[in-house]
Amino acid sequence: MASSDESAGLDVVTTGPGSKGRHRAPAATARGSWTVRADAVVEPFTRFAATYATQHPGRPISILQAGCTTVGSELDLAALRAAGADLQVSRADDDCQAAQAVADSRSELQSATLAELRQLPLAPRSLDIVQCSMLLHRIDNAELVLGRLVGALRPGGLLLLRTADRETAAGALDRMLPQFARVLAWRIVKPGEPGPFPARYEPIASAHGIEAFAGRHGLLILHRQACRPSRKQGWMAVAQAGRRLVGVLSGGHFTSGHDELRYVIRRPEDQFARVLQ
Fold it and tell me: pLDDT per residue over 6-15, tens digit each?
């Protein structure tokens, strides 16, 4: 069941046990809880990154934006810099046609590395924060790529992960529609923007896949959120109707309650630390 925070422009979806219907998201959450706050001023990614920066004063904070051509406003670099953080930001993405077109159209991406991400040169324990936004579901060998990104984190570093969810009606539609239909839908919803991006949706692009990955790698899940990004008002009803239809036709296998997953995951300092349940 979903609960909306209208000021934040997204739906916060409570998918864990104890969800009893629509309610306003609370002001705070315990670690590991699905019930989280979508703050209109400070997104969770920005909040955790700011806390990390304050815990490491006196040195630059190195950030890699992996999937830089599909990064949204979930990590506010300007706000972090305004708060005094010294950021060193690098950017990388897969070298698909859509990513190339986005990079060519945006000046801040001219220096981004677009390449086969399995071969991206990443020094072990060299990064403080990896932001992986809307990348996992559109690349091949996604688990291998994510493993290399995590390996580049310093102990205590953060993985800020946002992905479309293969177990949702929206994810099912995206990967099952023929390409001409995907192109048409993209042009209607995002006119003039390069795309659509590939739709791979390997098993890791799901809550089960991400949390199993975290368990295998001894990572700490600090925050998890299921949400639906804001859309143009005229298409919200149409999109929701399509999701519900897929949900019904799949016998409830694909949920229409959310589209995306967001996680804040930490590489622990202590090698014996365990994932929070």
Answer: 223 333 333 3
39: its two tokens: 């703050």
Q: Is residue 198 part of a domain?
A: yes
- Comparison of pLDDT for 42 and 94, the residue scoring more: 94
What is residue 136's predicted lDDT score, i.e. its pLDDT? Answer: 97
Helix (H) or strand (E) holding 186: helix 179-189
Nearest CA to 210 among 228, 222, 193? 222
Q: What is the residue range of 262's domain?
A: 2-266
228 Cα distance to chain centroid = 11
CA angle 175, 203, 166 (to 5 degrees): 40
Q: Which of 144-158, 168-182, 260-274 has the lowest mean pLDDT?
A: 260-274
| Residue 274 forms part of a structural domain | no
**Cβ(172)–Cβ(246) under 8 Å?**
yes
The span from the first CA to the last CA of the chain, in angstroms, equals 21
Is there a domain that residue 273 lies in?
Answer: no
What is the DSSP-derived secondary structure letter of residue 15?
-
How far is residue 277's CA from residue 274's CA, in Å, rounded to a whole number?
A: 9
**What global pTM score does this model have?**
0.80
133, part of any domain:
yes
Q: How confident is the model at residue 255 (pLDDT cuts 50, 70, 90)?
A: confident
Number of separate domains in the chain: 1
Report in angstroms the alpha-carbon separations of 107 from 69, 167, 185.
12, 35, 27
- CATH number of the domain to which 252 belongs: 3.40.50.150
- pLDDT at residue 34, as a whole number: 33
Q: What is the four-CA torsion angle of 134, 72, 111, 137, rounded to 10 degrees?
A: 0
Tokens of 6: 């209208």
Task: Output the six-digit token pair for 143.
Answer: 């688990």
